[in-house]
Design a protein that fits this description.
This protein is α/β, with parallel strands linked by helices. The chain has two domains: 139 residues, HAD superfamily/HAD-like (Rossmann fold, 3-Layer(aba) Sandwich); 62 residues. Helix content is 39%, strand content 14%. It contains nine helices and eight strands. Strands 5-4-1-6-7-8 form a six-stranded parallel β-sheet, sandwiched between helices. Strands 2-3 form a two-stranded antiparallel ribbon. Strand 6, helix 8 and strand 7 form a beta-alpha-beta unit. Helix 1 crosses helix 4 and helix 3 packs across helix 4. The termini are close together. This is Haloacid dehalogenase superfamily, subfamily IA, variant 1 with third motif having Dx(3-4)D or Dx(3-4)E.
Length: 207
């Protein structure tokens, strides 16, 4: 039985793929005069923006990340809460199950991209990218969360949609559940549970 459930945001709570990749495409076309497909850029999903830009060979990281975030606002209308997430969070709250967030978003990005959806009231602790020196897939973000929350590792599970989330959880010594509604595929991911939809999260309470 799990009494603490930690969530990733992008691809787990929020469907942000179109907005994130479209805004990055626009930035890279402007910066590098090169067209990238979504398939080319899928690797950026689940890691901090600054890390993604470094992998793309961008040098002026801070300014570039700011510009990417400004373009993201143009596509924000594509962002939505996955169907079934809010109902599941309400139910977990009613069951007195503690919930938290470990995300690759910075605090500023969390405020701009997540807070508007009015879901923060369901989460007791939030660890953002700027709360730790190392980031997913390193275990530090989850270990920081455990430190802040006092959660029992053996009764805590992390729900995410990427291999970065999986490695972060396993290296931190907690179980991992794959959010298949965001991941779309379980290939290459060794999860303790594969969840087809958010309502399946409730079954973890009874494990």
């Amino acid at each position: 039985m799990y009494n603490y459930i930690i969530f990733d945001i992008d691809g787990t709570i929020l469907d942000t793929e179109t907005a994130v990749l479209s805004s990055l495409q626009k930035f890279l076309l402007e910066e590098l005069n090169k067209n990238y497909s979504f398939e080319d850029l899928n690797f950026v999903l689940g890691i901090p923006g600054e890390t993604a830009l470094k992998k793309l060979g961008i040098n002026n990281i801070f300014e570039s990340n700011e510009k990417w975030n400004s373009y993201l606002k143009e596509y924000f209308h594509h962002v939505k809460v996955f169907e079934g997430i809010k109902d599941t969070l309400v139910k977990l709250n009613e069951m007195n199950i503690s919930t938290g967030i470990v995300t690759s978003k910075t605090k500023e990005e969390f405020t701009n991209d997540f807070v508007p959806f009015d879901l923060t009231k369901y989460f007791k602790f939030v660890v953002c990218a700027d709360d730790t020196e190392k980031h997913k897939p390193n275990p530090e973000p989850i270990l920081k969360f455990i430190e802040l929350s006092g959660a029992d590792k053996s009764k805590t599970i992390y729900i995410g949609d990427t291999k970065y989330d999986m490695h972060c959880a396993s290296s931190a010594g907690i179980d991992f559940a794959l959010a298949l509604w965001g991941a779309k595929s379980s290939e290459g991911i060794d999860a303790n549970y594969i969840l087809e939809n958010p309502k399946r999260i409730l079954e973890l309470i009874e494990v």
